[in-house]
Amino acid sequence: MSDLLKRRISRRGMMRGAAVGAAAAALSACQPKAVEVTREVEKVVQEVVKETVVVQGAAQPQGEKVVRYMTQLWNWQKLNMATATDEYNRQMRGKVRIEADPNPEGWQTKVAQMVKDGKLEWNGMLRTRNLGEIRDYNRMGIIEPWDDFINSSSVPWASKLWDELLPNIRTSFSEEGKLFGFPWDIEVFVRVYRKDFWDKLGATPAATLPDFEAQLYELKKMFPDNVPMSFRHWCTHPDQHMLMQLWTENPWVQEDEGSYFDVRSDAYKEMMNLLKRWYDDGIITDDTWGETVAIESWNKGISLTIQSNASWTQAQARKVWGTPNIATTTNVVLKEGDKPKTFTFGNGAILFKGATEPQEITDWLLWMVDPTVEKVENYSFHLGYLNYYHFPAYKSVYEKIMPTNSDWAWMEPMYDMVNASAPLPTDAHLDIFGPIADSWEQKFMHGECTLDECINAIYDEERVQVQKVLEGKK
Asked: Which end of the chain is more exposed for a tag (fewer CB within 10 A), N or C?
């Protein structure tokens, strides 16, 4: 992180900021286990202290414009963003220098006040998600769209961005036809399995639901000390609800106040009945179906198959059980000939309203995510996120960059699956839906209520809570 911080940040202050930023980011985004969060914080602090000293000794060329942005530390370090930005700054020396600060706790409120006062300290935030955050920041009045600055950019590939960006990712980061989140990668939910166990079954996970389900029951017989399947049931990331796409093209219903999962649909009922059958028969258990236990049981070797985020399911498991024993495949379909689908959420940057250097920030982002490069350099952002099991948001990476490295070959079949999936609505109330659905779906799985009671409760309670939130923001 040699050029992460502005030069005036003290060594002690940086350690404190890094620890807070890294812990918050890890808990909210990419580190499922608390013990790993602690190690990551220590690692980040050590690196920041070491490298900030170098920054304090660096001379700024006369006339160079310093452009400030904020970021979470996990993506800045783990995904090669810091290294890529160092290279950008080297190439732009004497003209523009990008400096990124770790996002302070409660940055949204701080930025809202800065926008109101017309005294912005940063141009934007490097990491947001299309999980309702764009809608919320728009309601706060703190962001503006990227369109004009992308269209005005002198970066050579800028004119191709609108054709390169995956359509459903563009939709999920847009409001009223404007792009409010600048996508830099996406996280895709896939089937991952223990190849060493499945090899003993003499098979790989079948493509169709009936065949796959039969295999799960065979695994249960062959390995009674294990559980065939893990499914994550996490409030803010509706992993399991992607199964609704087995029975419908669009699992969402749009209403005046936003988008909701259509819990009254036949698709939702089919999904819940499938999960209940698996639960009753021991295909999933309380140890493998839940907010945190699904990943934990997978990493411990209890479950033999998991359907969840490709990065979370592979990063730790490959270290524990060995890379050859962890394999991936596309998600199940209802019948032969159907297209597999997934749940995808994107990571993107936002531009604060009234930013003082919006074009410089846009040009830097365009340079960093350029999918048309002929060679992936060691400093490349593409190298960072692809090696971290994240997926591209731009077409040419699938077509030109992925085939250059055999380590990324497992991702190539996922391209059609990502494109075939329903876009995640920008106005989805996932933060409200998640806790309500989690509570009632668990009651249904445990036999404490009927499916109709579960559905009606989720439907009613979600809308009541949405109205309360909306009334409170008027």
From this structure: C
pLDDT at 114 over 50: yes
| Pairing, β 230-232 against β 305-309 | parallel
- What is the C-alpha separation between 57 and 40, in angstroms, rounded? 26
Alpha carbon of 182 to those of 58, 165, 190, 416, 441: distances in Å?
30, 10, 24, 22, 34
The angle at the Cα of 37, spanning 32 to 39, to the nearest 5 degrees, equals 135
Distance, in Å, from the CA atom of 262 to the CA atom of 424, rounded to the nearest integer, reads 13
Residues near 114 by Cβ (< 8 Å), separated by ≥ 6? 120, 121, 352
pLDDT of residue 50: 32
> pLDDT for 409-458, tens place per residue?
999 999 999 999 988 888 888 888 888 999 999 999 999 999 999 999 99
Both tokens assigned to 378? 């060691």
pTM as predicted: 0.83
Q: Which residues pair with 136 in a beta bridge?
A: none
Distance CA 250, CA 245 (A): 7
Query: Tokens representing 12?
Result: 């002690």
Mean pLDDT of 201-213: 98
Question: What tokens were used for 391?
Answer: 């997926």
Structure-token pair, residue 337:
């000939």
The torsion of the CA quartet 170, 384, 123, 469, rounded to 10 degrees, works out to 50
Find the mean pLDDT for residues 388-414. 94
Under a CB-based contact definition with an 8 Å cutoff, are residues 368 and 85 in contact? yes
What counts of helices (H) and strands (E) characterise the chain? 20, 14
Cβ contact 353:144 at 8 Å: yes
**Mean pLDDT of all residues belonging to the chain:** 86
b/e per residue 7-40 (b: at least 16 CB within 10 A): eebeeeebbebbbbbbbbbbeebbbbeeeebeeb
Q: Is the pLDDT assigned to residue 346 strictly greater than 60?
A: yes
pLDDT in tens, 292-313: 889 999 999 999 999 988 988 9
Share of the chain above pLDDT 70, in %: 85
Residue labelled with tokens 């990331």? 237
Crossing angle of helices 266-280 and 451-472, in 10° steps, is 120
Beta bridge partners of 255: 258
